[in-house]
Amino acid sequence: MNVGFLGLGAMGAHMARNLHRAGLLAGVWNRSADKAITLARELDVHAATDPADLAERCEALVLCVSADADVLQVIDQILPAAHPGLLVIDCSTVSGGTAKEAAARLATKGARFIDAPVTGGVEGARDAKLAILVGGSEDDFARAQPILGAMGATITRFGDVGAGQAAKATNQILCAGYIRAIGEAMSFARSQGLPLAQVVETLGKGAGSSWYFVNRAPNMVRGTFPAGFRVTLHAKDLRICRDMAEAAGAELPVVEMLLKDYAQLVEEGHGDEDISSVFRLTERLFPSA
């Protein structure tokens, strides 16, 4: 299949490179054209002028953008060139409702859609070890396998369109608990005079470990928080989780707590840092440390 990739952010650029390594990538597009031109030259593929340009050239498109409105805007830009059989794979993190709306719009042109949000961080995107959470028909899932397999190591269909986004929301709730707990634990360890690098090295092999502890607690040791997963993006995801829970008549206390933390970090100018920067707040729990 000839595949086009749309959205070349921190995750998307790595994912596009992996599609190229698999011999699938035909072209790229990004809202900031310079990114697309630079990557296209590096990989010797087409730099599309707009999403419709890629749709005309490709049998499948992979989309990785930031928010619900972005997804629907790009879908609308694809539509004039959408053709029967075109498969659009959306790896963005958005609501299940947005996924269903995107599928409905594409269906008017006979094009197909699956939601396939990813988890595994920039590292997973770089190393093609992402977990990919899919919603879509069995036939579309089967057709997407070569594409998904080039980008990820664990690929699971959870149901029809929208189910992948429900699974991703579940993941983001887990991440909320981990990152807050890790911030508190590392702040506590420092207050007790423990060597933080050794805490990460040893407890990273224990029962309390997690991907986030092993890969993001080192940021807390160094006191620097380069953007792996930005505070503003996780806050956007958690608001999706909150809305989905409210629709089911429920509240999510852990999500609400972290949303307050993120609002404070944004107010203090740290919204573009990695979410491990919650350590900036949890270390204040121990003022004498």
Please describe what this structure looks like.
- The chain has 289 residues and is an alpha/beta fold.
- The chain has two domains: 3-160, NAD(P)-binding Rossmann-like Domain (Rossmann fold), CATH 3.40.50; 166-285, N-(1-d-carboxylethyl)-l-norvaline Dehydrogenase, domain 2 (Orthogonal Bundle).
- 54% of the residues lie in helices and 13% in strands.
- The protein is built from 13 helices and nine strands.
- It has helices spanning 12-21, 33-43, 51-57, 68-78, 96-107, 121-126, 138-151, 163-191, 196-203, 211-222, 231-247, 253-267, 279-282; strands at residues 3-6, 25-29, 46-47, 60-63, 87-90, 112-115, 118-119, 130-135, 152-159.
- The strands form two sheets. Strands 3-2-1-4-5-6 form a six-stranded parallel beta sheet, sandwiched between helices.
- Strand 1, helix 1 and strand 2 (25-29) form a beta-alpha-beta unit.
- Helix 8 packs across helix 10.
- The relative contact order is 0.10.
- The mean pLDDT is 97.
SS content category = alpha/beta
Q: Strands of the largest sheet, in order across it? A: 3-2-1-4-5-6
Shape assignment: globular
**CATH level 4 superfamily of the largest domain:** NAD(P)-binding Rossmann-like Domain
Q: What is the number of beta strands?
A: 9
User: Major β-sheet, in short?
Assistant: 6 strands, parallel
Low-confidence stretches: none
What is the third-level CATH name, the topology of the largest domain? Answer: Rossmann fold
**What is the CA-atom radius of gyration, in angstroms?**
20 Å
What portion of the residues fall into strands of 2 or more residues?
Answer: 5-15%
Round the mean pLDDT to the nearest integer and report it: 97
Relative helix content: 40-55%
Q: Quickly give the CATH architecture of the largest domain.
A: 3-Layer(aba) Sandwich
For the record, the count of structural domains works out to 2
* Number of helices, counting only DSSP H or I runs of 4 residues or more: 13
CATH class of the largest domain: Alpha Beta
Order of helices and strands: EHEHEHEHEHEEHEHEHHHHHH
End-to-end gap: 57 Å
